[in-house]
Amino acid sequence: MARRDREARRFRLEVEGKVATVTLDRPARKNPLTFDSYAELRDFFRDLRTDPDIKAVVLTGAEENFCSGGDVHEIIGPLTERDLPGLLAFTRMTGDLVVAMRRCPQPVIAAVDGVCAGAGAILAMASDIRFGTARSRVAFLFTRVGLAGCDMGACAILPRIVGQGRAAELLFTGRAMEGEEAERWGFFNRLVEPSALLAEARAFARQLADGPTFAHGITKTQLHQEWAMGIEEAVEAEAQAQAICMATRDFRRAYEAFVAKRRPRFEGD
């Protein structure tokens, strides 16, 4: 498929077929975030909700690191000079990035190598699928800078990935999880050799993008919404969601392909 590049000021964006790859691209500083890159990432994921072409996203970092978190000089230093309303405006904006990632219908696959710390760990956590490497180090290190571990939804999302006790340990101590531990604890779906990491994440994203993408969006929505539901409410919500999927052309395409003993070709409608 032809590759086309879309303009992005503070991260690199490549779109190949139905898959977008977002690369945090400040390798000299291990790809930290700035005020502007937070906002631009938020806007990118918000815009995905109405993008008919992109069906899956790979999120990664340049040159052997994922993301070192908020830039010490460009974010943390200026934050020490803000008043409380200014600080709250910042923390709400960063939280809006996580909300945008969770609300976009496209599956987001994080390809994590090297440093994945602070807000970088949050970006990986907020993704739907995480591929890592043995040499990656994931740290929710907010307590190391005198902050609470409850940043950008970490106390809601991380326990659902690794369990309450493990999440508490990581958020209280700020210590790093090595790659093998992160896989064993369920943070990483799989470990990949560094040289193959991006290729495997993209291949997985293409697999999802070639599937019933309308139904994938429903799955992502239900995974998100059912956190706060009781079992009866969840069963009813899934009954309604599945009935909607049964009304799609993709559902009929799958049936017709099964009858014809061929592989279905989904189109996302």
Question: Can you characterise this structure?
Answer:
This protein is of the alpha/beta class. The chain has two domains: 3-209, 2-enoyl-CoA Hydratase, Chain A, domain 1; 213-259. 47% of the residues lie in helices and 15% in strands. It has eleven helices and ten strands. The chain has helices at 35-47, 72-79, 84-103, 119-126, 154-162, 164-173, 179-184, 197-209, 213-225, 231-246, 249-259; strands at 3-6, 11-16, 19-24, 56-61, 108-111, 115-117, 129-132, 137-139, 176-178, 190-191. The strands form two sheets. Strands 1-2-3-4-5-7-10 form a seven-stranded mixed β-sheet, sandwiched between helices. The protein has a three-stranded mixed β-sheet with strand order 6-8-9. β1 (3-6) and β2 form a beta hairpin. It is globular and about 65 Å long.
Shape: globular
Q: Give the terminus-to-terminus CA distance.
A: 22 Å
CATH architecture of the largest domain: Alpha-Beta Complex
Category from helices, strands and their pairing? alpha/beta
Within the largest sheet, what's the order of strands?
1-2-3-4-5-7-10
Number of separate domains: 2
User: If you compute it from the alpha carbons, what radius of gyration comes out, rounded to the nearest whole angstrom?
Assistant: 19 Å
* Share in helix: 40-55%
Poorly predicted spans: 1-8
Count of DSSP strands: 10
